[in-house]
Amino acid sequence: MITERERQILRWIEENPLISQQELAELGNITRSSVAVHISNLMKKGLIQGKGYILQKNPYIVVIGGVNMDIFGHPDAPLVQKDSNPGHVSLSAGGVARNIAHNLALLGEDVKFISAFGEDAHAAQLAEGCRRVGMDISNSLTVPGGVTSTYMFITDEHGDMMLAIADMDIYNQITPKFLETKIDFINRASLCIVDTNLSSESLRYLAENCRCPLFADTVSTTKAKKLAGLLYHIHTLKPNKLEAQLLTGIEITDESSLRRAAKKLLDMGLEQVFISLGGDGVFCANHHGQALLPCYASESVNTTGAGDSFMAALAWGWRQGLSLEDTARAGLAAASICIASEETISPRISAKAIYDIIGMMPPEEAE
C-alpha cells in the first residue's frame, strides 16, 4: 500500500527526475533521512528503479516455473483401492508457477510468465489460456518436438489429493544458459517468483543472479531440498510444516518449535517466511515480528491450488506494502476463496475480494 507521503514524493520526482533528497526534504518539510527511508520503501515496492530515480510506470512480476495440463479425478464416494471408482474426470491448466501467475493476473498484476512448452495440443491450449487471462508468455521457451508437462491427480470425496503422477521432464530445458538470456528482463521486475520444478542448477543461477526480491514456492518436500544453501539469496519462502522441518532440521511439534524453525529460516538468510499449517492457518515471521494466524472459515470443495493462491496473494500483498500480518491474512483470504471453488483457480479471486475478507479498505477507496 502506498502512503500519502510516498505519493507526494513520487509526484515531485515525476516533475523533476533530477531532484535531490535535500530538495525533497525541503519541499516536504521533513528531514533528509526521512526522505531516504521513503525512497528506499518506494524502491522495495518496485515504483522506483535503482539510482537516478528512474520511475517504473508499470511494474511487473516475473513468475518462473511449471505449467502443466492437469487431469483431475474426483470420486462420487469414498475411494476403493484397486477398483474402478465412479466419479468425474476433467482437464484444466495447472502447474504451481502457472497457477500463481494466473492468480496474480486476477489480482490485477502485470505478470510475465516464463516456462517451457512442448509442441503438442496441450501446449497450444495452455498458451492460449495464459494469454486469455492476461499473462505474458513471450519470454517462455517452446521445445521443438517436446511433450508438455502433464500432471494427473485423484482426490478423495472431500477434494483432498490422494495420489498423483507427474510427467515433467520438459522443465530440464529451462537451463541456466536459457535463463541467462532473460536475466536483464527478470531484474527489471518488481519481484520474481520461482517454483522448485526448476532444476537445482537453474534455481542456483537465479538465486545468485536475480537482483529483484526473489520469492520461492517449495512445491513439495522432495523438491524443497533444492533450496538448501540458497536461502541467503531468497527474500520470501512459503514452506509447509514438513518442508520447514526439512530445511531447518528442527522437528516441529508445538508452537515453540514452530517459532524456532521460523527463526532459523530467517537466520539462514530469508527476509520473511510464511509456514503453512494447513487447516490450522499460517505462522508468519520476519526480522521485526511474528504471528500465528487462523484460517478464514470456508466450505472445502477442492483444496488443490489453495497453496498457489496463497503464494500469489503474498506477493500481491508485499507489492501493496501490507504489513507482515496483513500479507499473511491476504494469503489466507485467497486460499479460502480457492478451496470454496470446484476449479483450481477461483474466478472469484480479486483484490477487492481479498480486501473485503481481511477487513481493509482498498487504497483507491481510502483516498
Mean pLDDT: 92
Indicate the CATH architecture of the largest domain: 3-Layer(aba) Sandwich
Q: How much helix is in the residues?
A: 25-40%
What is CATH's topology name of the largest domain? Answer: UDP-N-acetylmuramoyl-L-alanine:D-glutamate ligase
The biggest beta sheet, please?
9 strands, mixed
Distance between the termini: 12 Å
Task: Indicate the structural class.
Answer: alpha/beta
Number of strands: 17
Strand order of the largest sheet: 8-6-3-12-13-14-15-16-17
Q: What Rg, in angstroms, do the CA atoms define?
A: 21 Å
| Estimated share of beta-strand residues | 15-25%
CATH secondary-structure class of the largest domain: Alpha Beta
Shape summary: globular
Number of H- or I-type helical stretches: 15
Q: Please name the fourth-level CATH homologous superfamily of the largest domain.
A: Ribokinase
Uncertain regions spanning at least 5 consecutive residues = none
What is the number of domains?
A: 2
Domain Carbohydrate kinase PfkB: 60-347
GO molecular function: pseudouridine kinase activity
Enzyme class: transferase
EC number: 2.7.1.83
What's this, in brief?
The chain is of the alpha/beta class. It is built from 15 helices and 17 strands. The N and C termini lie close together (12 Å).
Polypeptide structure, described:
Residues 60-347 form the Carbohydrate kinase PfkB domain. This is Pseudouridine kinase. InterPro entries: Carboh/pur_kinase_PfkB_CS, PfkB_dom, Ribokinase-like, WH-like_DNA-bd_sf, WH_DNA-bd_sf. It is an enzyme of class 2 (transferase). Keywords: Kinase, Transferase. The protein has helices at residues 4-15, 21-28, 32-44, 96-106, 121-132, 176-180, 183-187, 200-209, 221-224, 241-248, 255-267, 306-319, 324-339, 351-358, 363-366, and strands at 48-49, 54-55, 60-64, 68-75, 87-94, 110-114, 116-117, 135-136, 141-142, 150-155, 161-167, 191-195, 214-217, 236-238, 272-276, 282-286, 290-293. It folds into two domains: 4-55, Orthogonal Bundle (Arc Repressor Mutant, subunit A), CATH 1.10.10; 60-366, 3-Layer(aba) Sandwich (UDP-N-acetylmuramoyl-L-alanine:D-glutamate ligase). It contains 15 helices and 17 strands. The strands form four sheets. A nine-stranded mixed β-sheet has the order 8-6-3-12-13-14-15-16-17, with helices on both faces. A four-stranded mixed β-sheet has the order 5-4-10-11. It has a two-stranded antiparallel sheet with strand order 1-2. The relative contact order is 0.11. It is of the alpha/beta class and 367 residues long. The protein is globular and about 75 Å long.
